[in-house]
Amino acid sequence: MARILPAVPQTPNVATIFQEIEGAFGRVPNLFSTYANHPPLLQANWNKVKAVMMEGSLRRKTKETIAVLVSRDNSCSYCVAAHTGALRAIGVTDEELAAIEEDLDKADFSAKEKALINFARKANREPLRIPDEGFAELRRTGATDAEIVEALGVMELFTSFNKFLDSLEVDIDF
């Protein structure tokens, strides 16, 4: 059971943010309703989701895969459920989901995308153990600095969401 209950909009600003979120997802997930207990944090995190997940040059499939795998590495059931659902919503089959979770090399990604996904996971698990060769390998696949930062931005976003959701035991609503 959630340690802090999701909030209902108490201000016009929160109501507007909830409308945007509902427009994007078809509903307001418990993650954002819980953030609404502190409206400035709701606003900041919603803006970050838009900037990280809805803008940039990486494919949504790549970003959602980073979200799922980083969240799985961090044992966050909420984000794994939410972003596995997001992958299904964009047409990823159960067969490919299994490949993503078990052997990324068998999933439908370019070499650059696989390298970025693996790099984001490494940065999540062992950020101080990334050798210079890791960056050189990314660059050999054609990854740009902007794409590396974008992939790490997805990792960063979900690492923070994972900790927030798990600390508060937010109910999974996916």
Layout: helices, strands, pairs:
Layout: H1 12-25, H2 30-35, H3 39-53, H4 60-73, H5 77-89, H6 94-102, H7 111-125, H8 132-140, H9 145-168
Report on the architecture of this protein.
With 174 residues, this protein is mostly helical. The protein folds into 2 domains: 12-53, no CATH class; 60-168, Up-down Bundle (AhpD-like). 68% of the residues lie in helices and 0% in strands. It has helices at residues 12-25, 30-35, 39-53, 60-73, 77-89, 94-102, 111-125, 132-140, 145-168. α1 runs parallel beside α3 and α4 (60-73) runs parallel beside α7 (111-125).
Largest sheet: none
Number-wise, the strands total: 0
Roughly how much helix do the residues carry, as a percent range? 55-70%
Whole-angstrom Rg = 17 Å
Tell me the count of domains: 2
Strand content: under 5%
Mean pLDDT: 96
Instruction: Give start-end ranges of low-pLDDT stretches.
Output: none
**The CATH superfamily title of the largest domain:** AhpD-like
State the end-to-end CA separation.
15 Å
Structural class, by secondary structure, is mainly alpha
Q: What name does the CATH topology of the largest domain carry?
A: AhpD-like
| Level-2 CATH architecture of the largest domain | Up-down Bundle
Order of helices and strands: HHHHHHHHH
The CATH class label of the largest domain is: Mainly Alpha
- CA-based shape: globular
Number of helices: 9
